[in-house]
Amino acid sequence: MNSSEFRRRGKEMVDYVANYMDGIESRQVYPDVEPGYLRPLIPAAAPQEPDTFEDIIKDIEKIIMPGAASPACTELETVMMDWLGKMLELPEAFLAGDAGEGGGVIQGSASEATLVALLAARTKVTRRLQAASPELTPAAIMEKLVAYASDQAHSSVERAGLIGGVKLKAIPSDGNFAMRASALQEAMERDKAAGLIPFFVVATLGTTSCCSFDNLLEVGPLCNKEDVWLHIDAAYAGSAFICPEFRHLLNGVEFADSFNFNPHKWLLVNFDCSAMWVKKRTDLTGAFKLDPVYLKHSHQDSGLITDYRHWQLPLGRRFRSLKMWFVFRMYGVKGLQAYIRKHVQLSHEFESLVRQDPRFEICAQVILGLVCFRLKGSNKLNEALLQRINSAKKIHLVPCQLRDKFVLRFAICSRTVESAHVQLAWEHIRELAATVLSAERGQ
């Protein structure tokens, strides 16, 4: 959609909302539709080719408005999460379908999803241990619980441990910045010998620092063997798994209890939209379900509806699945795949430019849209380069620390980025690098 069409469609939407408000008194205050009305009205999977904007707007009035905001808000979310799960080729156990035990929910962020998974895992292990040993108190169990994540995991994982009141231990990553089963098992055995209870592991697919991937095919079976909840955080990289050539990066997801990524990061859906799936929805509802009188409704115990307030921290929620529906239909699966592939191609173009300049080095394998690079030399030299780049305000780079190296990160993430932008950015970086190196020689 170009800017002129965007202006036209924006005005049409203002008219739609204004007409709705003008005619609101003619509409019922409560819908006639029954739970489950929506799924038969829309396809079982996302379209491969784009739909027209006109067709989507017609469907808003025909399909959504009869059940707005309930049950349409809930039911569209369930179906959109199944659409997205099928795009990723998630195992059937993660899909809601017509009668599945699992399913997806839209959280606000990956941080939220990790915390929800940790709290659900904490409740599950506490109840299991109390069932076996009724004399154990929740407090006695809590003080022994321990969670694990790679030393490359996002800081939000550590934060989830703090909020959840459990110990979190960082597992040393290997030479490719990945968590391996051997290091995890060693930590678990050591903790069990000390009387602690391993209960939760976060595996990261596409770390923030360098887009490394924990070894799911090793870590997954270990977690299953130890009866430990495995949560997968693929906040950034998950969008790429809709492309068959990148789907192997998700191999091992079948061992996980929960999986999460952010369509708002790399799948053209506006913030906030963090997609989370669980194999057993009762693991979440068992941890968060509370039913005061003022939240009860006539379908409370019918088994016909999904009550997402029991899947998340807040009780209130927005109609976030609507923007997923628009994006999936406006682009089609093929359009979204092309978008991902273009970004990956551009990151490799930048990598090639870096490798051609002997002053620079690549610091981690380039798999998706992130390139980690630096000047050969001291951390101080690279800090000076970054300071000049960001002070010039033509491009913006965010650094990371890989072991003892200060590293610059070049991330392809704009919807409108082209090869010309990559070339201009590289020329800019090279010029500033020459200035920094010249200043160092002059000292």
TrEMBL record:
Pathway: Catecholamine biosynthesis; dopamine biosynthesis; dopamine from L-tyrosine: step 2/2
Keyword Calcium included in the entry's annotation: no
GO biological process, one term: carboxylic acid metabolic process
Co-factor(s): pyridoxal 5'-phosphate
Gene3D superfamilies from the UniProt entry: Aspartate Aminotransferase, domain 1, Type I PLP-dependent aspartate aminotransferase-like (Major domain)
Alphabetic keyword roster: Catecholamine biosynthesis, Decarboxylase, Lyase, Pyridoxal phosphate
Molecular function in Gene Ontology: aromatic-L-amino-acid decarboxylase activity; pyridoxal phosphate binding
Sites of N6-(pyridoxal phosphate)lysine modification: 265
Pfam family, one: Pyridoxal_deC
GO cellular component terms, semicolon-separated: cytoplasm
Family, as annotated: Belongs to the group II decarboxylase family.
Subunit structure: Homodimer.
PANTHER family recorded: AROMATIC-L-AMINO-ACID DECARBOXYLASE, GROUP II PYRIDOXAL-5-PHOSPHATE DECARBOXYLASE
Protein name from the UniProt record: Aromatic-L-amino-acid decarboxylase
Species in which this protein is naturally found: Microcebus murinus (Gray mouse lemur)
Gene that encodes it: DDC
